[in-house]
């Protein structure tokens, strides 16, 4: 897959296609308006504005859905299809728009409304339950979420397993059987590593990770390197603060990342570079897909592969710190006092089984995901009752990470996803982790890219990612992208080997074998 | 007009009214989305995002217009009207929505499209012409603007004068005859004052106005007093920077003001308090009009009366500086060194005929407006040719202010309005100035308000403005508001008397009589 496709928007002369593109452009613009208002809500909106902003956002979501699912869209798709086939750009737009249209029109309005109401109620119940660490009050809402998920799967349709219908929303084409196979392989080959590291003990000094690093200096340093190392610049991007970090974008020239500043300063730095990975994906999507449904990332997993690649494979590497340690010294002299690049590299790569997913390291993170995947699958299949969930959660935490949560707030109630009806979402985090290494290794087959990575010069790598992943937007499936870019299907092999290589060395486990 | 109306939204049970309100709410929400995206564009958007943002804004404007002018809106208005009459809130909503609907549907789509294209072209031609101070290249575009204005007036319809149809867009109910009468009175009674002040000479030291005042300190001081003196707080408002200061809002609990920092620091301070006046108007509009076309100010003139009241009548008064001078000393010690409150008051009330409208003082400002009003009226009537405009402009500048612009960039080309097709807009600035004094004097009939104003305690005044002006939104016409609040029609008398009183004293013209 080495063809570089033209960046020029397709010069459509087919009048039906023009009308279809006009409508899809309106849908895209309404989506952008909603995204701007949501971003603004998280970054700068005055508190009292929240109530009306909620109504405004609901209107935009409703009008977008109405416009897109209108029968006229279906007619335009039918009418445009034959002529669109003459042009690869038009053909991809029609193909992706039709896929979206069919998905969007499969759920009756009454069902969507019931789901929205129930999710809203479940979310509020979850907030209260987490606060009081009281799973029992959340249980009936989770049962309702599972019931809705089963009904949604039936409405959407599936060949083998209802979970597939849900997973497909986030990872088009992925199947539960594939996830199970890959996850089992990953689990069997990394659980011994976790146990070895835990058993080895860890005498390193991690107090450096909370040394004084003023808030403005954290943000400025993270943003400076987002530009210098990874190519995210103020001419087409902004950095802001928000309670929960995220990336959003309103076009490929309008990227927004947010960060949060904490005493534990790696949260801001690596969080910023994580969002930078997401942003550079959107930046690399070809302009030919602008204001069409083909813009955006191929899937949550492919998106996560980019954020994790930047955050972990690059920014948590020794070459990165060899190159940028002196800048950190300038930005944060108190942090770096008495340290050198290898010592900093060592500190930001601590492995330690922990209770909370979002705080987990590269080695233990995927166990948090596997646990959630296994449990939500059992719930959906009816093999596990909601009432049995906390016990099952804690048992798996003990099995995988040797820990038992002191309460449900730090256990089964920690994540927002289930309360928001996001069943089938969790696996994409680990799929992204796996893909990140598989992609990087494929890119490093090119010696110029490999040399760049060894010297923390990422321009050649970025060009490869743009050519092999980013530019396609949603015109290719995750499988097509994975196989096109790496020559083989997604596998746990590269990730397992990477963990053993990196952490075997860090923890001096010289006999560790994958 | 002392009835305090309930703030509670109307509890509508009429199903047609409910459907109408739903549609009007959607129109309002789309307008809010457009406003958020426009505000964001001016305050924080990355440069490269501009092109796509323009397309997104055009889509929102188009969809808003389409939704509002759809035949269904007219049907709902017809159907809702009889039952709406039972409820004052519903009746006002239907009345204002119908007025807007009829205006919006009077212009054929082809005309609006032609107008939009021509305005866009004229705006770019104006930018280039102003840069090169070359009126001749802008002349054909201005001719086109005047031609479109005449056609628009014919399409909108009018009883006596085509100018009325244009003016009515900005100042509902105002007529060119009334403007002429009021302006002639104002001109005849203030031109001698300008001439007396100019003749008297001015030995005051104005270097204080450009003494060092760091940018962040300017903004912080302006914002602090916007809250402390005028009631604009961060829980429902924000201050940002932009190239041209403005106020916008997305609900009455989501107000945004922008400012610009210059070496001439009064621009930031008084500019902020000007926008604060606009913001507090929107803040005071009753919640009952939320997400309906009745929200917002009654007219540009009434809006300007509030901004000018805050900026000039309050913030450029001696009591204001008596109260807040010590805070300015803390915020800007270099500015205030060797000064006291009366000296500062004196400095920020300099009268000096100047070429540029937006830099003009309270005494000369209205001559800039009268000049523009007279010229655009003559152009519309065909009594003045576009080619004769620069000469006519310069002659009037000499007549009113004793100045001749050195070039057209500092003369006839200085303002954006005509290039944007805004014919009939200028008078509202002066109408607002006049109304500001008429309102303040009416309020000061109440001794508690008067005492507050003398001590720069504006809470009683603000309550009066909310009750007599703000709360009504667009449910009353400017005339109804003016007469209801002040007991008489708009007149130049209070403003003329105010100028003579204030500037007679400042310039020691003790024999000056109105």
From TrEMBL, chains A, B:
Pfam family, one: Peptidase_M32
Molecular function GO terms recorded: carboxypeptidase activity
Keywords in alphabetical order: Carboxypeptidase, Hydrolase, Metal-binding, Metalloprotease, Protease
EC number: 3.4.17.19
Catalytic activity annotation: Release of a C-terminal amino acid with broad specificity, except for -Pro
Cross-referenced InterPro entries: Peptidase_M32_Taq
Coiled coil feature spans: none
KW Hydrolase (keyword) present: yes
Function description: Broad specificity carboxypetidase that releases amino acids sequentially from the C-terminus, including neutral, aromatic, polar and basic residues.
Protein family membership: Belongs to the peptidase M32 family.
Protein's UniProt name: Metal-dependent carboxypeptidase
Annotated organism of origin: Deinococcus arenicola
């Amino acid at each position: 897959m080495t063809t570089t496709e033209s960046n020029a928007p397709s010069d459509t002369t087919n009048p039906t296609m023009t009308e279809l593109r006009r409508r899809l452009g309106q849908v895209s613009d309404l989506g952008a308006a909603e995204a701007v208002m949501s971003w603004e809500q998280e970054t700068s909106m005055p508190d009292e504005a929240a109530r009306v902003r909620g109504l405004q956002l609901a209107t935009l979501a409703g009008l977008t859905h109405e416009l897109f699912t209108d029968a006229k869209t279906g007619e335009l798709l039918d009418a445009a299809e034959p002529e669109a086939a003459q042009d690869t750009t038009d053909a991809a737009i029609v193909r992706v728009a039709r896929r979206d249209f069919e998905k969007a029109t499969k759920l009756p309005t009454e069902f969507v409304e019931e789901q929205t109401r129930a999710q809203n109620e479940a979310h509020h119940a979850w907030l209260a339950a987490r606060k009081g660490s009281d799973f029992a009050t959340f249980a009936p809402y989770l049962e309702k979420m599972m019931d809705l998920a089963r009904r949604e799967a039936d409405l959407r349709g599936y060949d083998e397993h209802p979970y597939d219908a849900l997973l497909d929303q986030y990872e088009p084409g992925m199947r539960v059987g594939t996830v199970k196979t890959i996850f089992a392989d990953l689990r069997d080959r990394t659980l011994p590593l976790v146990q070895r590291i835990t058993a080895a003990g860890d005498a390193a000094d991690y107090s450096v990770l909370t040394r004084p690093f003023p808030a403005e200096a954290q943000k400025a340093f993270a943003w400076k390197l987002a530009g210098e190392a990874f190519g995210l610049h103020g001419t087409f991007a902004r950095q802001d603060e928000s309670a929960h970090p995220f990336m959003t974008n309103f076009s490929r020239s309008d990227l927004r990342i947010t960060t949060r500043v904490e005493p534990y300063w790696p949260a801001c730095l690596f969080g910023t570079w994580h969002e930078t990975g997401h942003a550079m994906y959107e930046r690399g999507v070809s302009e030919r897909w602008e204001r069409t449904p083909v813009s955006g990332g191929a899937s949550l997993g492919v998106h996560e592969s980019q954020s994790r690649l930047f955050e972990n494979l690059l920014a948590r590497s020794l070459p990165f710190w060899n190159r940028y340690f002196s800048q950190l010294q300038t930005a944060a002299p108190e942090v770096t006092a008495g340290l050198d690049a290898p010592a900093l590299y060592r500190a930001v790569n601590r492995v330690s089984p922990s209770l909370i997913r979002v705080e987990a390291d590269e080695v233990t993170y995927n166990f948090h995901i596997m646990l959630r995947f296994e449990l939500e699958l059992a719930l959906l299949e009816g093999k596990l009752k909601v009432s049995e969930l906390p016990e099952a959660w804690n048992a798996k935490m003990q099995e995988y990470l040797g820990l038992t949560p002191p309460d449900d707030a730090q256990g089964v109630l920690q994540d927002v996803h289930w309360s928001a009806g996001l069943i089938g979402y969790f696996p994409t985090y680990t799929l992204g982790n796996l893909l990140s290494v598989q992609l990087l290794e494929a890119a490093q087959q090119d010696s110029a890219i490999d040399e760049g990575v060894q010297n923390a010069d990422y321009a050649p790598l970025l060009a490869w990612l743009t050519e092999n992943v980013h530019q396609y937007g949603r015109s290719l499936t995750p499988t097509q992208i994975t196989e096109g870019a790496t020559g083989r299907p997604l596998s746990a092999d590269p990730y397992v080997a990477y963990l053993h290589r990196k952490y075997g060395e860090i923890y001096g486990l010289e006999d560790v074998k994958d």
